[in-house]
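Table S5 (text form). Sequence records supplied for joint modeling of the two-component complex.
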Amino acid sequence: MVFSSLVFLYAFLPLNLICYFICKNQTYRNWVLIFFSLAFYAWGEPVWIGLLIVSSLIIYLLALTVEKHRGERQSKVALVSAITISLSLLGFFKYWDFLVHNLSLITGISIPLHNLGLPIGISFFTFKAISYIVDVYRGEVRAQQSFPKFLLYISLFHHLVAGPIVRYKDVAAAIEHREFSRSQFNEGINRFVTGLGKKVILANTAGETADLFLQGDLSALPVLGAWFGIILYAMHIYLDFSAYSDMAIGLGKIFGFNYQENFNYPYISRSATEFWRRWHISLGSFFRDYVYIPLGGNRIHHLRNLFIVWFLTGLWHGASWNFVLWGVYYGILIALEKVCLSKILKKLPHWIAHTYLIFAVLIGWVFFYYPDLQSIGDFFQAMFGFGSRELINTQLKIYFSNNLLLFIIALMACTPITKLIRKALHYLTDKSTRTAFLYGEALLPSLNFVLLILATIMLVGKSYSPFLYFNF
Amino acid sequence: MKKHQLNIILFLVPLFLLGVLNILISDKPTISELENRKLKEKPPFTAQKLWTGEYFREYENYFADNFIFREKFVKISGMVKDLWGLPGQDKVTIVINEGANVAAKQNQNNNEGETNSDGANSDKTNPGGKADNNSDNSNNATENDGKGSVTGRVFVLNDKAMEIHTFNAEACAYYADFLNSFAEKLPENRQVYSLIAPTQIEFINEPKYKNLSSPQKDTITYVNKYLNSEVTTVNAYQALKENTDKYLYFRSDHHWTALGAYYAYTALMDTKNEKAIPIEQYQVKEVKPYLGSLYSTTLSKEIKENPDSVHLYQPFIKHEYHVYYENPIKIDLLDMRHAKNTNKYGIFLGGDHPWSKITTTQKNGKKIIVIKDSYANAFVPFLLPHYEEIYVVDPRQFTLNIFDFIEENNIQEVLFLNYVLVTDNNGFTDLLREMSDI
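The corresponding structure-token record, covering 910 residues in total, follows.
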């Protein structure tokens, strides 16, 4: 299931809220969350629910071993087995077919594909499991003694299928004990509804419009069409992904959990290094803490480490070479910035550094979007005006003028402008209780209400699919 | 009121209220006339479907199709989309229509209307990426689709909506090739005609929008060049072009009017060196207002304010008309039962049927079979004065062996009548080929 669906909003969530708040006992509440999380997971493909539970059980037991034999050899063995098992599962389900395909291309050996498909969220829950057991090994957190509580951490539907990669230590206390607070519930609503609106109203439309340019015949794509398309895609991917994180964080607050931020306005960065500190923070910090630093960080084999980390970061996004290319591309940019580029960028006016970053990111999204080198090449030709192509065509003009307002709002949503406005309002409201009341108790709730209803209307609108031919 | 109470109430009340109303209110429509389709029914529960996750996917579509206030919400969401744009001199939009599937097969797998674009069955490490959409795209695209996209695009210019045509050399050749093979497989002394109907967008006056759609004249020429001498082409294009000042196409529908069809008919008569019946000889009935398929697609305000009307040229030759499903059913050639429906184009021949037969009192022994898409429906009534028997076959539903059918009924003339958009992709040609084992 996804958050931005009618079934989630108007069946799953209300039921979940009732069952949860009817129980007064913390243990029952945990069970309610586990039950709903498993149902949430099963909604996609019930087949994999066993995999989720069994792999959680193994990690749970191994973590207990790690803690029990701290300092002894068994501890390390348990850690290594846990990581091996997690990565093998991920490797088998996500990368086996890719590996076999490439192997047969190189050597001609044919090994059967498994064609099992990808269990939902496996990239997220295996990483959560790894971060947990490593933290236990490092003594940064106590191992969870109760399996249901551990399962709750791994399977909690807020972050099960699309992140963020929540660390156990950030939620350990909340799993044991949560206090209901009206102001947190309130914040959770604000956050969830913001995310929902971002996803349904802005991200979906931006994505659909981007596809019109990116998926057509690239040899006839006008230059500005290519730029318009890739900018829309950049907005789509940020709004879509950060909206999921907003909704996850919002849901967390509603149920009494506090998750770390996952995005921090990445498009305002002035270097690729900064971009990755602001983009998908939970993934970047995972690779930093569990791969880059253990490998030696910037102390030994710095370039090798950078390459490994960015190769893996790319590969994590999908079993396809274009993702690897995308990851390595960032690795190279970041290495260049470390060597000299950032010194130069710092001396230049901000807008130049900013332009550099936006340009670099847009190029990056081309690698991310197209799975094959042929299309990537064709698209670059369109962007840079190779071949006999127009600068602009009628279709682009029509799409542009039909979506201008959306384009502007989406652009604003990618920047902290709305946050600044909110801050300004807060500042004003600090001075007067009356405006504070109007803002917090009237304006904001009405705004949320409108967003929720609008998002619902757009979701229902998506089901509208007229047929030219009678299709009864 | 306590702090934050309003925010919490305004969030929870809609969630619970709409959730509960959804369950309580059960007399919802099962058919959406506006969309020309059946709304999704609650999927039957089977362990197999549950296990593969199909049950939940179907349930999600059912849930959306049966959501409370759906029709109102759909209309509002259309209005919201209108707000994104700039007001200009012309009201111009391009609407994407995923349901437009030219070759939507009607008999089985009606999965095209998948509504859930976030495939729930993907690992979302690839946020908002294409992996998301795998689940619904696979339903839409026919496999050997050539390069053409199955998604239709509709251009709206003020109160006129028109399908956009995209030239696809491969698909053109695929269609022409089929016609050649078909003619070859027929016994000698059978005459095969090919009539490709151009559409409205070809004849718009505004030069600045001309290049939105590929030139249909070129497409038709391209197909005709491929045809062997056994296939005789009918130049309907010229006949229509000479009369563009008249009401040849609906503004709210993707079809031509009966008048448009009439000019195409005169072109057929020219090709056969026969005399066409003058249009004045027909009595005309008018049915209005008509808001057709492209209004449904676009929900354009301008079109709604200025709907079409359907002109019906009353046949004056005595005839009997039967449509054949399992058993023949006798209906009117201009089936007025459709006059009160949304889809008034359905009046012509009573819509699309697997096959149908018209027997006239013109005892001249001449027989023709029209293998067609729905463009032929407005056209066929004009053939009455010229044939004793007229057979009409729709490849989307026809299940018999077409060559045996022609042989058994001793039909001498075969007319392929389709609109130019069947050459945008291979979908329709696939159905033609399947029907003829080619």
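Note: Chain A touches chain B through 96 residues (CB under 8 Å).
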